[in-house]
Each structure stands twice: as C-alpha cells, then as structure tokens.
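Consider what follows.

. . .
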Amino acid sequence: MYRTLAGCALLACASFATAQEGAGDSVLIPDNTFVPNSTTAVEASGDNELPIATTPSEANGWTPLFNGKDLTGWTASENKDTFKVEDGLIVVHGDRSHLFYTGDVNDGEFKDFELWVEVQTEPQANSGVYFHTEYQETDWPMKGYEVQVNQSHGDPRKTGGLYGIVDVMDVSPVEDGDWYVEHITVKGKHITVRVNGKVTVDYTEPEGVEREGRMAGRKIDKGTFALQGHDPGSVVRFRQIWVKPLD
C-alpha cells in the first residue's frame, strides 16, 4: 500500500532512505515507492489526495508546463474543443485530438528528461501521454512513444504501459476516479515509467531497432510532449505537469 504524507508522519518516516535514481536524487519510502526529492508537499483536497509524499518543485530543477489557468504553451490538433481548462484542470472530453506542448520551456524540444503528470479518469476513458513526438494536425501521432492511460476502457493495454512496446495488460495499477502520477524518465535509450512510484516499464531500446507500419516512428529521438483525447466517451483530467530536462 502507498503511504500518504500524513501516513509517513505517523510512521516518523523511519524507513526513509535516499537512493540515486537516474540523474537525480530520489527518496525511498516504505513499500519501495520512489518519488523525486522535493520541498513541495501534495495538498489534500478531499478524495483528491495523492498516495505519494511530494511533488516536484522549481527549487529542484523542475519546470511546470501547465499554468493551471489556460492552455498557454499548448496547441490542440484537429478537434480543438476536446481540450479545455476548468477549475485549474485540463479536461479532455470530445472527438479525437492531441494537445501538443509548443511552449518555450527547453525551446519545446526534449531528449533526456523526467516528466511528471497527474491524471484522473472517469470509467471507460482512454488517453495517453506522448514523448519525443511532434505536432501533427490529424490522426494518431506517428512520431514518438505513448505511455498509456486506461483503467477500464475496452482496450486491454492499461495504464503505465509503453503502448505497443511494453504493455501493461488487462489490469490497471490504479482505478478510475483516483488521482495518480505517471512519472516518465528517458535517459539515452533507457525508458522508465512509474505509476504512483511503482515501476511499470523498464525498457532499453535496442540499437538499430526498426519497426514497421504505424509503429515505425516509435523510436528514441527528441521532440515534445502530447496529451491524447481518444474518443467522445472518454473523460480525462490532467493537473500538475512538470518536466526536468536531463541533457
């Protein structure tokens, strides 16, 4: 079971120990849950309290990509009304569309990085977080990898998988209605995905890998990020989105 900040306080955080993770420091908390070192605690908001201790902060080299007010720095493709900001959240609901980061952070291009995204889904929702991608006006993005967001949609590929490459099949590690974190780290050819601190993908892309058809562009490269609007039956919310370039 994951520990909340309050839970750690009750335990006096006796079992906390620091560990080196990738290019930055991490904190190891009970049940082997890794989270980035941070001075900013997640604030409880009723049922929206996250089951983790901390979130990134600018003091530790992270930069927010979403200002909590509007979609400044982001550009939606095809069905642009699929994305809107309500009550400080990016709400995704409508026909297929993708929201690409086109802002100024790192000139909108990322190779090695950590990305921290807080997500909530309603039942039957499907979405994803792309990296190393580029703006595309229509269709599903052809460039870059997708980290899956799906608790209960009919697609058997569930949350935390690297879509079509290293899939989490049939059973999601989290539930609809809960806020959770997808923490994506890319360093060289190595991709790590964590959901609420638990590793769901630990993948190193083979040298010279070749893929066919629609998967041909799923390769380590460089590029931007995108959030997916999958279909009108999907309702997904994103709140804090942070990046920490590592190159």
